[in-house]
Each structure stands twice: as structure tokens, then as C-alpha cells.
Amino acid sequence: MAPAELVRSLSAAAVAVEAAAAELNRLDGYAGDGDLGITMTAAAQALQDVLATAEEMSTAQLLAACGSTIARKAPSTSGTLVATGFLRAAKAVEESTGPGAVAVERCFNAAYEGIKARGKASVGDRTLVDGLDAVCASLRRSVASGTEVGQMLEEAAEAAATAADATVDMVPTMGRASWVPDRAVGHPDAGCALLAIVVGAVAASIAAGP
């Protein structure tokens, strides 16, 4: 059975993403199609559908089901990247033998590597990858210092928010944003903003407890 804590955290992330849909559309509109909020709302709703049957699944099965369902119900570039992250995280859970903090770090790192490869983006390109790189670096530090999971995620959320803020002055070099870089500069990258919202919601859910 998937841990109740994970189910609550994913549900909280889905709710937060839906609430931020208009803001995500706005940010994406500066240099993209302006539909990131619409796509991620579809992904969030798909996530909630999977969570409704979570009691029948292991952690790996739950993450894999989230990935495959999002791939079907939010079939866009951003939806595919999010789906890839979940599928890679599911595989990392299957292979993980460490304590909770180690498993969390491995899941995020696996998602990061999968998204980076699928999107063919690198750190500095002003994409979701920049945020994930910061989050993974924070998680590695937390594991090395023996930080408990709750504080670990709070620090990761801060890292995600800082990374999103840092993209304001970055020039995009990938995708449609690279066609009109002047429109993007001065605003945070929508993908990094999405990550900050998600990790922040997860951290808040863990801190609040059952």
C-alpha cells in the first residue's frame, strides 16, 4: 500500500497546481503558448483520479500510474515531461533500499535525469531543469547531513523558489521562449514556478501532518 503521507502530499500538490492555473498561464504567455496552467490542471486532475485508488497500490505502482495517466490525459510537452518524471521516480523507488530521505532524493534525482534527457535541456537554459537541479542539490545536502524528511523538503522548496526567482534575469535558449527571448526576460520561467509550487505544497503537507 502506498504511504498515506505520500498520497496526501501528491493531493496537496494537485490542489496547489489547480489553484495556480491562471498564474501559470500568465507566465507561460510571455514566451510560450500561455496554456501551461490548462495542461497542468489536466495533469492535476489525472493525478487525483489515480490517488482515489491509491490504497490498492505500492509506492512504485502509484508513481508509475501517475506518470502513465498524466501522459494520456495531459499529452503536451509539459505533460510529457511531468509524466516522465513520475515514471523515472517509480523506477527509482523499486531500486531504492535506503531510508525515507534517501528514497526521496533518489526519486527526485531520477525525475531530474529523465526530464533533462527527454527535454534535451541543460542547466542554464532557463527551463524546469534549472529548478530541478537546485532541488536535487538541496536534497543531496540534506541526505549528507542527516536531515529528516520534513525539513529536507522545506529546504528543497526554498531552493525551488530561489531557482525560479533566478530565472527572471536568464535568457531562454530552448523551445518557443528562445524565439522571443526579450519577452521572457523579466519574468520567472513558468516551469520553474510550477516546480516551486509543487515542492512547496508537498513540504507544507508533510509539515501539517495527518
Topology at a glance:
Blueprint: H1 4-19, H2 21-29, H3 36-51, H4 59-73, H5 77-95, H6 100-119, H7 128-145, H8 149-166, H9 181-184, H10 190-208
Helix pairs in contact: 1-3, 1-10, 2-3, 2-10, 3-4, 4-5, 5-6, 6-7, 7-8, 7-10, 8-10
What is the gist of this entry?
The chain has 210 residues and is mostly helical.
Q: Could you say what the CATH topology is called?
A: Serine Threonine Protein Phosphatase 5, Tetratricopeptide repeat
- Measured as a percent range, the helix fraction is over 70%
What percent of residues are in strands?
under 5%
Which word captures the global form? globular
Q: How many separate helices?
A: 10
CATH architecture: Alpha Horseshoe
Listing every helix as H and every strand as E from the N terminus to the C terminus, the arrangement reads HHHHHHHHHH
Averaging pLDDT over every residue, what do you get? 92
The class by helix and strand makeup works out as: mainly alpha
Distance between the termini: 17 Å
The level-1 CATH class = Mainly Alpha
Give me the Rg, rounded: 16 Å
Query: What is the count of distinct domains?
Result: 1
CATH superfamily: DhaL domain
